[in-house]
DNA sequence: GCCGTTTTCGGCCCGACTGTTTTCAGTCG
């Protein structure tokens, strides 16, 4: 299933976790963690690499290269196997409980023999933590609360749910007279596909009333921690929100810091240290004199480190620092770059808005072209027929007269059957301006069959876009298993675009596969897949995902002028 | 364990909050 890179990275990360429990050297642990990230983010498949090839990966030295080679030859890493015999998997699982880290997990295991979350729960109920050094009544209470949280809703939320909470808080705090600026930061600003907690940053000279207003917001269910500079709350739905208040002159440094990622910040701080500087959320300082150099804007902070400003969507330490140093950062695609949307539905199939309303919504977005792509007949529950489709085409042509500034395209979303065929024959398909083709069934085919299926769809001269290619549903359905390198090679060769579907529970292709596909020269279509007027707003999540995949406007066919797009749709 | 236009040894990002500890360790981001 997973790529060798991901499996090797997981094993190295597990090694780091196990060592942190057994009390290994903290710097060695960090070295493993860094290497795990580097291996997961390495563009080439590691399974074919020898020792020298592995050592070319940054942060992978002799020792880690040998461990990875151990994995690629034997399927596991000997040291990990050995540590697993000392530390049961359940002990590592204990560190998933908030407020419980590796030190406390080890104490619980050694002193009480606790080796699972369930056993810990029992031990607390039986009062066995009383008198254990470092475990007071408050700690006990926090652990119980943490276990409950883990079991109920400790999971990450979809990006739109987090954005809704963030928007509400930013609006409320921005209205306070004490607040000069307020924005969300963290993984939401980086547009990660799921969000663990929401980070909000405010600039103020008077934090106390800001904190008070924050904890008094109606969405607050619980105050987790509360101080002068930082306050954390949890909403009724279990989402944690951290508010940081900084002096206005620290805004840029603070925004940079709280946007993360942690891995990106480590890199920027290392660059600062090497230049005799020190970077914190309060600014960039001379290391010795502690004299402030810059802190007002992110641009100033990056510039003083010798870097161009780096887009938040790239800040994952997966090559953006190197690209920035070489002045090779991509000019990322934006919502404003999009001239069209190539995937949408109406109430003729499973949409809930009329053709007229959907077109009006597209026009309100300022689009130059817009494709209606209702479902084809093989998705039987939609009850599509040739006659209905042709009637819709006539209605689209009539409607076109009302929108002289926007070109309407009549299309369809085909179903890729288990063999890679689609709903209609070539003759009928040639009547459409555009055909999206997607997997809607038989999700569990094996890798070979699924690869053949997607390749055959790409090779169909009437298929222009592969819709939501992995067919995943975040938190509900896994991505289909395919040899993506094979699929992307074929897509590039045949001039078939891969969709980036903007639905918050799809975001499909995901960012990592986008980057892989781009390496083969694949083009992309960033679409809403809108089934209602309101879904048009989801486009920001699709664009965020495209940005995390390092896409430029030229990579995205629906940023192109219509004549260039039409040439692409001819698949010649 | 990794790494090197100040180093092949001696560093490795930085700060806030909590709880239990009377001066600081653990956890988190």
Outline of this structure?
This protein is of the alpha/beta class and 572 residues long. It contains 24 helices and 17 strands. Helix 1 packs across helix 5, helix 13 (251-259) packs across helix 15 (298-304) and helix 20 packs parallel to helix 21 (484-494).
Descriptive terms for the model:
Beta Polymerase, domain 2, 572 residues, 4 domains, 17 strands, globular, Beta Polymerase, domain 3, DNA-binding, 7-stranded parallel β-sheet, alpha/beta, DNA polymerase, domain 1
Could you explain how this protein is built, in words?
Its EC number is 2.7.7.7, 4.2.99.18. GO terms for molecular function: class I DNA-(apurinic or apyrimidinic site) endonuclease activity; DNA binding; DNA-directed DNA polymerase activity; exonuclease activity; phosphoric ester hydrolase activity; zinc ion binding. This is DNA polymerase beta. Keywords: DNA damage, DNA repair, DNA replication, DNA synthesis, DNA-directed DNA polymerase, Exonuclease, Hydrolase, Methylation, Nuclease, Nucleotidyltransferase, Sodium, Transferase, Ubl conjugation. Helix 1 crosses helix 5, helix 13 crosses helix 15 and helix 20 packs parallel to helix 21. The chain has 572 residues and is of the alpha/beta class. The strands form four sheets. A seven-stranded parallel β-sheet has the order 11-12-13-14-15-16-17. Strands 2-4-7-6-5 form a five-stranded mixed β-sheet, sandwiched between helices. Helices cover 43% and strands 15% of the residues. A hairpin with a 4-residue loop joins strand 6 and strand 7. It is globular and about 80 Å long. The mean pLDDT is 92. The protein folds into four domains: 152 residues, DNA polymerase, domain 1 (Orthogonal Bundle); 90 residues, Beta Polymerase, domain 2 (2-Layer Sandwich), CATH 3.30.460; 59 residues, 2-Layer Sandwich (Beta Polymerase, domain 3), CATH 3.30.210; 236 residues, Metal-dependent hydrolases (TIM Barrel). It binds one DNA strand of 29 nucleotides through helix 2, helix 4, helix 7, helix 9 and helix 14.
């Amino acid at each position: 299933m997973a790529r060798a890179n991901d499996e090797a990275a997981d094993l190295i990360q597990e090694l780091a976790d196990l060592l942190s429990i057994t009390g290994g050297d903290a710097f060695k642990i960090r070295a493993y963690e860094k290497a795990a990230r580097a291996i997961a983010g390495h563009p080439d498949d590691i399974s074919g690499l020898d020792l020298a090839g592995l050592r070319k990966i940054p942060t992978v030295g002799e020792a880690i290269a040998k461990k990875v080679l151990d994995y690629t030859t034997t399927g596991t890493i000997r040291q990990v196997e050995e540590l697993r015999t000392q530390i049961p998997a359940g002990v590592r699982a204990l560190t998933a409980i908030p407020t419980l880290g590796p030190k406390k997990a080890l104490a619980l295991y050694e002193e009480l023999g606790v080796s699972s979350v369930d056993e810990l729960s029992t031990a607390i109920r039986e009062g066995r933590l009383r008198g254990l050094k470092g475990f007071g009544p408050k700690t006990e209470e926090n652990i119980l609360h943490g276990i409950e949280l883990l079991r109920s809703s400790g999971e990450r939320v979809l990006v739109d749910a987090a954005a809704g909470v963030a928007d509400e808080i930013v609006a409320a705090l921005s209205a306070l007279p004490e607040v000069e600026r307020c924005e969300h930061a963290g993984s939401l600003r980086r547009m990660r596909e799921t969000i663990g907690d929401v980070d909000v940053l405010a600039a103020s000279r008077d934090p106390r009333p800001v904190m008070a207003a924050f904890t008094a917001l109606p969405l607050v269910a619980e105050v987790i921690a509360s101080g002068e500079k930082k306050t954390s709350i949890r909403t009724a739905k279990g989402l944690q929100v951290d508010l940081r208040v900084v002096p206005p002159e620290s805004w840029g440094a603070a925004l940079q810091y709280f946007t993360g990622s942690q891995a990106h910040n480590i890199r920027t701080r290392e660059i600062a240290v090497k230049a005799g500087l020190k970077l914190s959320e309060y600014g960039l300082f001379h290391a010795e004199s502690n004299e402030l150099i810059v802190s007002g804007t992110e641009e100033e902070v990056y510039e003083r480190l010798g870097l161009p400003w780096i887009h938040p969507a790239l800040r994952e330490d997966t090559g953006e620092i190197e690209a920035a140093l070489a002045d090779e950062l991509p000019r990322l695609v934006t919502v404003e770059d999009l001239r069209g949307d190539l995937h949408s539905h109406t109430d003729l199939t499973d949409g809930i808005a009329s053709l007229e309303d959907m077109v009006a919504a597209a026009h309100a977005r300022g689009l130059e072209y817009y494709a209606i792509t209702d479902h084809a007949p093989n998705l039987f529950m939609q009850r599509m027929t040739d006659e209905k489709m042709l009637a819709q085409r006539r209605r689209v042509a009539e409607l076109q007269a009302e929108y002289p500034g926007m070109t309407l395209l009549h299309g369809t979303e085909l179903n890729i059957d288990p063999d890679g065929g689609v709903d209609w024959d070539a003759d009928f398909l040639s009547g459409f301006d555009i055909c999206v083709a997607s997997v809607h069934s038989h999700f569990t085919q094996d890798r070979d069959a699924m690869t053949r299926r997607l390749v055959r769809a790409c090779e169909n001269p009437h298929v222009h876009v592969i819709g939501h290619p992995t067919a995943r549903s975040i938190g509900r359905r896994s991505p289909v298993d395919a040899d993506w390198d094979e699929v992307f090679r074929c897509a590039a060769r045949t001039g078939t675009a891969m969709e980036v579907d903007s639905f918050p529970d799809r975001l499909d292709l995901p960012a990592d596969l986008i980057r892989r596909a781009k390496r083969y020269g694949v083009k992309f279509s960033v679409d809403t897949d809108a089934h209602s007027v309101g879904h048009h707003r989801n486009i920001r999540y699709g664009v965020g995902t495209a940005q995390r995949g390092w896409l430029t406007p030229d990579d995205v066919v629906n940023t192109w002028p219509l004549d260039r797009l039409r040439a692409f749709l001819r698949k010649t």
